[in-house]
Amino acid sequence: ENPENVILTETDGRVGVITLNRPAALNALNRATMHAVVEAAEAFDADPQIGAILVLGSEKAFAAGADIKEMKDKSFAEMYASDWFRDWERLGRVRTPLVAGVTGYALGGGCELAMMADVLIAGPGTRFGQPEIQLGVIPGMGGSQRLTRSVGKAKAMDMVLTGRQVGGEEAERMGLVSRLVDDEAVQQTAREVAATIAGFSTPSAQKAKEVVAAAFETPLQQGLVHERRVFHSLFATQDQQEGMDAFTEKRPPRWSQR
Ligand code: CO8
User: Fold this and answer.
1) How far is CA 234 from the centre of its chain?
2) Nearby residues of 203 by Cβ (< 8 Å), 6 or more positions away
3) What EC number(s) is this enzyme filed under (predicted)?
4) Which residue among 22, 34, 62, 68 is best mutated to probe the pocket of ligand 1, counting the most ligand atoms within 8 A of its Cβ?
């Protein structure tokens, strides 16, 4: 396996696409892959031509977790000193909206990576799970926190304590999935959703992501004030003028985007 190829990147219009590419390991997230995903996402985030980032896996596996073989013989001291998984915090700081097209297994770190997306598209055949308890550990890339915030205690405890896999339909009912489509349509739909987002004004898409994400971090009153201030700030952009002029003139807007 060539560490250069653990992911594939391409641009599709204004969408930056990251495809996990370790088919023989069901896209298990080893350090090289984690690093490559984070670097690619940051590069797209810095690129003014990109308005959304799309993360895809393969038909069989979005990602079957952190790489168990890479971790298995590590000591506590090694895990602690290297702060294993800390790189993912950088993905959380990416301002460009992140869409995931999740097909096949999304287990452990794969489920956690999917939950880092702002919009998650899945199909009935997608399988979400936090099976770490079956390995004598617990989720380590945000599973206990992001899953609980998105589906509540009852479902999160069930998944984290039993390791039970949840299919796409149940996951959608639980609130884990933004849109459930046919399995064969997941990647294409995710591409279209990313293209839609990338077609809007970049400042408003980034600010929309920022304020929704803030709802998980802040008390309501503070979040409402933050939203209002960010809303006000968009009146400093050309795109606000253009969007509202276009509506009034009954024509499509021409975004300056960035
Ligand atoms: N890591 C490494 N290799 C993997 C992983 C993984 N997570 N998942 C699959 N593979 C490998 C298999 O070992 C196999 O390799 P080989 O051909 O060399 O034997 C290859 O991928 C194909 O897999 P299978 O033959 O097992 O395929 P099946 O279709 O039979 O089964 C499953 C698919 C059900 C997805 C099965 O592979 C499986 O159960 N995988 C592991 C799922 C799992 O437990 N994931 C959680 C990992 S732990 C984690 O993500 C977070 C840990 C947090 C630790 C906190 C530290 C701070």
Assistant:
1) 25
2) 234, 237, 239, 258
3) 4.2.1.17
4) 68
Distances (CA, A) of 34 to 111, 113, 128, 130, 204: 14, 10, 19, 18, 28
Other Cβ atoms less than 10 A from the Cβ of 181: the count is: 18
Stretches in the chain below the pLDDT threshold 50: none
* pLDDT score of 2: 72
Which is it for strands 127-129 and 166-167: parallel, antiparallel or unpaired? antiparallel
The structure's pTM equals 0.96
- Residue pointed to by tokens 């702060």: 83
Pocket test for ligand 1, best of 26, 130, 132, 165 (most atoms within 8 A of CB): 26
DSSP states of the chain = --GGGSEEEEEETTEEEEEE--GGGTT-B-HHHHHHHHHHHHHHHH-TT--EEEEE--SSEEE--B-HHHHTT--HHHHHHHTTTTTHHHHHT--S-EEEEE-BEEETHHHHHHHHSSEEEE-TT-EEE-GGGGGT----SSIIIIIHHHH-HHHHHHHHHH---EEHHHHHHHT--SEE--GGGHHHHHHHHHHHHHTS-HHHHHHHHHHHHHTTTS-HHHHHHHHHHHHHHGGGSHHHHHHHHHHHTTS-------
Q: Is the CB of 132 under 6 A from ligand 1?
A: yes
| Ligand 1 centre distance from Cα of residue 256 (Å) | 45
